[in-house]
Amino acid sequence: MPRVSTVLDLSRALGWLPRSRYRTSPRALPNALMAWHDPAYIAALQQAETLDAPTDTMLRQHHLGTLSNPLFPEMFRRPATGVGGMMLAAELVQNGGVVHVPGAGTHHGLPDRANGFCYLNDCVLGMLALRHFGARRIAYVDIDAHHCDGVAAAFAGDPDILMVSTHEEGRWPFTGALDDDGGGAAMNLPVPRGFNDSEMRLAREALIVPAVAAFRPDAIVLQCGADAVEEDPLSRMGLSNNAHIGVLRALRHLAPRFILTGGGGYNPWTVGRCWTALWGTLAGRDIPDQLPVAAQAVLAELSWGGGARPAPQPHILTTLRDPRREGIIRPEVVARIEVLRRRIGRQ
Ligand SMILES: [Zn+2]
Questions:
Q1: How many angstroms is it from 142 CA to the middle of ligand 1?
Q2: Which residues, in sequence order, are CB contacts of 145 under 8 Å at separation 6+?
Q3: Domains by residue range for the chain, with CATH
Q4: What is the pTM of this model?
Q5: According to the model, what pLDDT value does residue 271 have?
Q6: How many Å apart are CA 143 and CA 131, to the nearest integer?
Q7: 3-state secondary structure at position 162
Q8: Ligand 1 mean position to 293 CA, how many Å?
Q9: 52 conformational bin, left if phi > 0, alpha if psi -120 to 50, beta if neither
């Protein structure tokens, strides 16, 4: 379904994307991808793009052509463009600055195989590019509904990486338990179903912001998967997009270099609205209560692309910000945050 194109169309309809602020992502070259991925895997991924069915090796060794990592016509070019966007972003912010790469955020990708519809790991390659351009200490914050297992695998035990992830407990990929500290590099906050804005505010103020501030990063990468909002069909979290905006605002000035990525998000309306609202926030724009007609038209043209899913509620077609979804802060959320708080400042 359309995701990045919705962000561009909405941003342009709002007058938020002048040409001077926009760059087309270059496609990363195979050699650049090998900074983390196996050469044999990159070759297989390029070859798979030309095939209708995977070979045995592709399927068994590289998990290409499975239900969650299907073959499709741009299966190399599209993720390689996400990586190219991250590498360009790392270069653009080398003297300070901020870039939004909505097409990036493939945090499940592994060195030698596709994983969870992530064929490459543009988060990892972007962080390596930040290092190449002079950032030593990098904080990676991930508020996607799913745990960032690929990023965790890449940087386990790295003293110059702080990884903070909030994700729904008991959900694929079933990694990122509370006591998994990634060899000292990670803080994992698994959260219960229905995780609400009030709970995210507590996580933000009591854990995410103090942990990142204490780490004193040279750069921050914020993975803002939109699948943690209530209407997403692939998870059961209960956030509004105000939660994402709040985390972005709180982190933006904690490092001179800042890269915002997309990630998951499987409701075409909520993912486009969330990431557009994030771009508007970064670009210093005021989010209007009611969208102008041209922006409403972008949302009106979206569809689920088949299937029997509920139609969007009326406010989804006319606004960018959701109503706030406050709720009770459950004791298990408080307790888990308290456990992690004891580790702040140890990295
Ligand atoms: Zn996700």
A1: 10
A2: 167, 168, 171, 225, 227, 228, 232, 234, 235, 237, 264
A3: 24-288+321-341 (3.40.800.20)
A4: 0.98
A5: 98
A6: 23
A7: strand
A8: 31
A9: alpha
Give alpha helix (H) positions in 204-240. 209-215
In 119-145, which positions are buried (b, 16+ CB within 10 angstroms) versus exposed (e)? Answer: bbbbbbbbbbbbbebebebbbbbbbbb
- pLDDT level of residue 283 (50, 70, 90 thresholds): very high
User: Token pair of 183, please?
Assistant: 């060899």
How many angstroms does the Cα of residue 152 sit away from the middle of ligand 1? 15
| Calpha distance 232→147 (Å, rounded) | 16
- What is the model's pLDDT at position 346? 81
CA of 288 to the centre of ligand 1 (A): 28
Query: For the segment 148-196, what is each residue's pLDDT rounded down to a tens digit?
Result: 999 999 999 999 999 999 999 999 999 999 999 999 989 999 999 999 9
> What does the alpha-carbon distance between residue 77 and residue 75 come to, in Å, rounded to a whole number?
6
- Cβ proximity of 220 and 257 under 8 Å: yes
Grade residue 58 by pLDDT with cuts at 50, 70 and 90. Answer: very high
CA–centroid distance, residue 145 to ligand 1 (Å): 5
Residue 163 near residue 119 (C-beta atoms within 8 A): no
Asked if residue 306 has pLDDT above 90, the reply is: no
What's the 265 CA to ligand 1 centre distance in angstroms?
A: 7
Reported as a single tens digit per residue, the pLDDT across 185-219 is 899 999 999 999 999 999 999 999 999 999 999 99
Burial class (CB in 10 A: 0-12, 13-18, 19+), 177: exposed
Q: Catalytic site residues?
A: 108
- Which residues on neighbouring strands pair with residue 188, listed in sequence order? 165
